[in-house]
């Protein structure tokens, strides 16, 4: 790397770090589902209650993996349970992902595209919001990027060199399963590439017939899945057998209305809003023009038979991922974070190849300024910030007698609704009673207003 490129990358990484940590202690998001993992990690540290699975998924018969809890255990342990410590971890992880985006884009294309991709990823509004959020879904983009790179190496390496990448690909997919079930869309993407390889009689695809590599991959996956398997043995195998069956049948149920899926209109509108927040925060129309225009330019030289060419491979990878999000029909951020690396690197490729000279960097600087300025003005998209939650928790923690916390209004039907306040009051030194109590604090978040009501039972 030339010194000027090193300086440019360093500046991009510093910018990424700034926007991911700016006012983080005040503006961190901390909803109940996040606190579920905090409490799970706390109980593992203090009482040895190590969980085998994570929080209940949108399909209520299924649980997320426990990977995020296992990461929180050392983070909270070393930080004396400070609630912002995990957000600092995810922010730094986000900066590392910026560096990885640069490395992958540079490997696929060239230095210029790598720097553009890193800059776009560093300043993308939705990516910034995601990296500031200490939650299991925050791990999704870097794992997705790992899957993309390992798949690329497996396809392009020599016969001897590619053998080590099959187990790595399996490990990457298992890590995605343990981190975020919404990202398991990657399985369909990888299987599509493998099927294409066999259809075209590609030499690289034969690695999946190697019995030794299959055994190695199975053993490594089995080790990572030990907690999940232990849970499944006593719960009727929902995380493995039932989940695999659901994965196989899911594509065939795409046009069947289910209680856990959204309407096509809602999904398309949600995807439009997602692309807006990735590309251009103030306007969905400008974001869609950029997205569709970039797609049109990419299709000019695209042919699926030359899928191994980096730009075609990345286009197919991202296109299949987008198709998977559509087929899943769930309007949730947990399912769209797999799009971050592919969309941004493709956009970087188009900009780097079709806009020449200093005009490119002028446009990028203007785009970054508008995005970051708009995001900061919107408190990084956080409706009820940490400083407000902490202030309410501090009021409750002053209670002299025993108390319990209840919920009212939208969202209060879920057990996790009050867990954030429960964690904060515990951290402040006065946790709620485990049984009944005369004093009840009722939490409400109606109309994005955090309210606390104190009542006394007679």
TrEMBL record:
**UniProt-listed GO biological process terms:** lipopolysaccharide biosynthetic process
Residue ranges annotated as coiled coil are none
Q: Where in the cell?
A: Cell membrane
One GO cellular component this record assigns the protein to is: plasma membrane
Membrane topology designation: Multi-pass membrane protein
Superkingdom of the organism of origin: Bacteria
For this UniProt entry, the molecular function terms from Gene Ontology, in alphabetical order, are: pentosyltransferase activity
Q: Which residues form the Glycosyltransferase RgtA/B/C/D-like domain?
A: 84-230
Q: Which UniProt keywords apply?
A: Cell membrane, Glycosyltransferase, Membrane, Transferase, Transmembrane, Transmembrane helix
Segments passing through the bilayer: 84-105, 112-129, 135-156, 168-201, 213-231, 279-299, 311-328, 334-352, 359-376
Identify this protein by name: Glycosyltransferase RgtA/B/C/D-like domain-containing protein
UniProt organism field: Candidatus Roizmanbacteria bacterium RIFCSPHIGHO2_12_FULL_42_10
